[in-house]
Design a protein that fits this description.
Layout: H1 13-39, H2 47-71
Length: 80
């Protein structure tokens, strides 16, 4: 009898869903920073816009890490 080869997948689709949610929140934060920057009267000292940009960029980085970790252990869906 021939042995059947079974591949164990290490997929985590919920991490992909988390990455999608984080990416949406990050893009919203960056857009909020742009709106705050253009709506503000202060040109050189707009800290609130900078905070929105920082939060947006950090959340987008977490989204990218979640996306990579969603399928990094899976031989079928590897993202190389």
């Amino acid at each position: 009898m021939a042995k059947e080869k079974t591949e164990k997948r290490g997929c985590a689709p919920w991490m992909g869903l988390l990455a999608l949610i984080l990416a949406v929140v990050g893009i919203y934060s960056i857009i909020l920073g742009i709106k705050t920057q253009f709506a503000s009267e202060l040109v050189y000292n707009n800290w609130m816009a900078m905070v929105y940009y920082l939060v947006g960029i950090l959340v987008m980085a977490m989204a990218k890490l979640s996306k990579v970790h969603a399928y990094c252990k899976c031989n079928v869906h590897k993202m190389n």
